[in-house]
Hints:
The complex is a heterodimer of chains A (about 375) and B (about 120).
Chain A: H1 12-17, E1 21-25, E2 28-33, H2 37-46, E3 49-52, E4 57-62, H3 66-73, E5 86-92, E6 98-108, E7 111-116, H4 121-131, E8 138-141, E9 147-152, H5 156-161, E10 176-181, E11 184-189, E12 198-203, H6 208-219, E13 225-226, H7 229-238, H8 274-286, E14 290-297, E15 308-311, E16 314-325, E17 330-338, E18 349-353, E19 356-363
Parallel strand pairs in A: 3-13
Antiparallel strand pairs in A: 1-2, 3-9, 4-7, 4-8, 5-6, 6-7, 9-12, 10-11, 11-12, 14-17, 14-19, 15-16, 15-18, 16-17, 18-19
Helix pairs in contact in A: 2-7
Chain B: E1 8-9, E2 14-16, E3 23-28, H1 30-36, E4 39-43, E5 50-51, E6 56-62, E7 66-70, E8 74-80, H2 82-86, H3 90-93, E9 102-108, H4 116-123
Antiparallel strand pairs in B: 1-2, 2-3, 3-9, 4-6, 5-8, 6-7, 8-9
Amino acid sequence: MSSSPLRRTALDALHRSLGATMTDFAGWDMPLRYGSERDEHIAVRTGAGLFDLSHMGEITVTGPEAARLLDHALVGNIGSVGVGRARYTMICQADGGILDDLIVYRLGEREYMVVANASNAQVVLDALVERSAGFDAEVRDDRDAYALIAVQGPESPGILKSLTDADLDGLKYYAGLPGTVAGVPALIARTGYTGEDGFELFVAPEHAEKLWQALTEAGAPAGLVPCGLSCRDTLRLEAGMPLYGHELTTSLTPFDAGLGRVVKFEKEGDFVGRTALLEAAERAAQNPPRVLVGLVAEGRRVPRAGYAVVAGGEVIGEVTSGAPSPTLGRPIAMAYVDAAHSAPGTAGVAVDIRGSHEPYEVVALPFYKRRK
Amino acid sequence: MSNPQQLRYSKEHEWLSAAEDGVSTVGITEHAANALGDIVFVQLPEVGDTVSAGETCGELESTKSVSDLYSPVSGEVTEVNEDVVNDPSLVNTAPFEGGWLFRVRVSEEPADLLTADEYTEFSGS
């Protein structure tokens, strides 16, 4: 634990007035839950939930060669992202290890916003600055320039529509447009980390409270509730979405994590990690080490990150994330397991839960997919 | 919240009822239940097991963590709450009532159990 004081978001006082249980997350004092995390989870699946995500790290990249810089620094084909669109991508080390997973929004012909995980924001910023040498582009730390409020869930389009004139129907998944919400200037993005339809609203910190209150009022009839990081974690786990530090680390490449599709070898020019990633792609195709799978419990004991996955008395893998799934009503986990045991339906797989081998079913990810 | 006056409390956040015919009921406090969050699994001792004051005798799992359950007294378990095994959320909704965990024939009681007022001060709630 760091001894430096925790950072507080612009909505800190509001969270406390709502009775939130707070937690240290990547050096930020963040809401873990307001009431029952299970109820918050279900609200997002069936109605809507409101999240403070102001700990996420925004980095702006501008200039004539902004696209070329990002194509060099990241593994994705960023130059091909249209203005007003967004892309899920990764930044890797020269050895192919994942430094972070990112969403990159193209705000203009020569302007991008890179959104990094709170725990990695400084690492990503430093890497982008270092990799910008020789490019006619500027990398700017905008972490303090934005508060980030997400409204997620099937009712979120209706709720947001009541507060903005922006063309939400024309706003596709993984797109973003500048607009005004509840009288507040915002970048409105149709992105999220819950497996539901939803929006992420980037606003100036001084406007965060006003926007939060407006969304709370507009969403109340639709069942919108404030939601903490605890349900955000179970929501993303059900949706099979990786979390940095769990499914993604510097000792894994995107191919090891089953996310090789984010690496675009066909893009123009060299990029950091290219040579190592070509080898990683070949290894994953021919002789994969461990494979990321889903596990569903037959019993009720919950697997946690770091627990061993076993079969026939041998350790065959390790749990990276685990939680009780409110939607499935049973504990679920993501785990890296030996390829021989990775096929859905593989028999005889168990998780060592504090000495007891609890049977688990191997399933394909995700655990949950929303109906479109 | 308020901690019932007629109960006594351990510093591990268990409560203990006054003995009837030598048998006391054990549960966890509302403070503990709130701190754990939604409880999804409880493992209780079995009827006939001997439990010892201050030692683990089961576990409570919530969404985010697993915690040991400590017995506030020594004795023999006479009954466990099957309702809580089937529906662990009872511990959150009624920690002092329907969410009780087990009953124990007390053989020895530690001297340092707290009164309701002492526990309220100790736990800050």
